[in-house]
Amino acid sequence: NAGVMQNPRHLVRRRGQEARLRCSPMKGHSHVYWYRQLPEEGLKFMVYLQKENIIDESGMPKERFSAEFPKEGPSILRIQQVVRGDSAAYFCASSRGTGNYEQYFGPGTRLTVT
Amino acid sequence: AQSVTQPDIHITVSEGASLELRCNYSYGATPYLFWYVQSPGQGLQLLLKYFSGDTLVQGIKGFEAEFKRSQSSFNLRKPSVHWSDAAEYFCAVGGVGQAGTALIFGKGTTLSVSS
């Protein structure tokens, strides 16, 4: 049973470009979470999605960041006009449900903005 | 506001020695508590979780953790550390965010194992 898959694993973008990060949840999981890990920091929650719905985006920066989880295909975290401060590891997690269901994490996408 | 504190940034333990990593949380209700481990350049792997019931929980790789409500703590322990346990360890509390489903993580404790 494949785990949570993320691609690309490493992404380099110049300032002002767009970054698209993809996440395929574990089979049977319909809940997806995105977290960001800055250097020497723990993970910070960004957004929680179910199929075709954003449930909680309280951790998302107000500008340039968006996320979607379409009916078909992976969840996408999109960062427009990237800046150096966006350089971080972005992790996706999926779960079978809410409440007492644990979240399983993917390997992450390491974004470097030059 | 909910928070998780891991007081130790870096710990070094001799191989074969016992280990305890500290975690304190701030949360209004009974929390969901987790310990994750992250190897360099890798994602997070769930070691164990506490939702309710027995306050001593067993996890993978020989780890265990004890929930102490009176101390707001969820410390991770292992009786005998192996060199392969060197990694970064994160404590997390669940049930947060607007939907009550997100995790808040501590800043992590880096474990080094000496021979």
Outline:
The complex is a heterodimer of chains A (114) and B (115). Chain A has strands at 5-7, 10-13, 19-24, 31-37, 43-50, 53-56, 65-68, 75-79, 88-95, 104-105, 109-113.
Characterise the protein shown here.
The complex is a heterodimer of chains A (114) and B (115). Chain A is mostly beta strands. Chain A contains no helices and eleven strands. Chain A has strands spanning 5-7, 10-13, 19-24, 31-37, 43-50, 53-56, 65-68, 75-79, 88-95, 104-105, 109-113. The model of chain A has no long low-confidence stretch (mean pLDDT 93). Chain B has no helices and twelve strands. Chain B has strands at residues 3-5, 10-14, 19-21, 24-26, 32-38, 44-50, 56-58, 64-68, 73-78, 87-96, 102-105, 109-114. The radius of gyration of chain B is 14 Å and the shape is globular. Chain B starts with a strand and ends with a strand. The model of chain B has no long low-confidence stretch (mean pLDDT 92). Chain A binds chain B through residues 4, 6, 31, 33, 35, 40-45, 48, 55-56, 58-59, 91, 93, 95, 98-100, 102-108, and chain B through 4, 32, 34, 36, 42-46, 49, 51-52, 90, 92, 94-108.
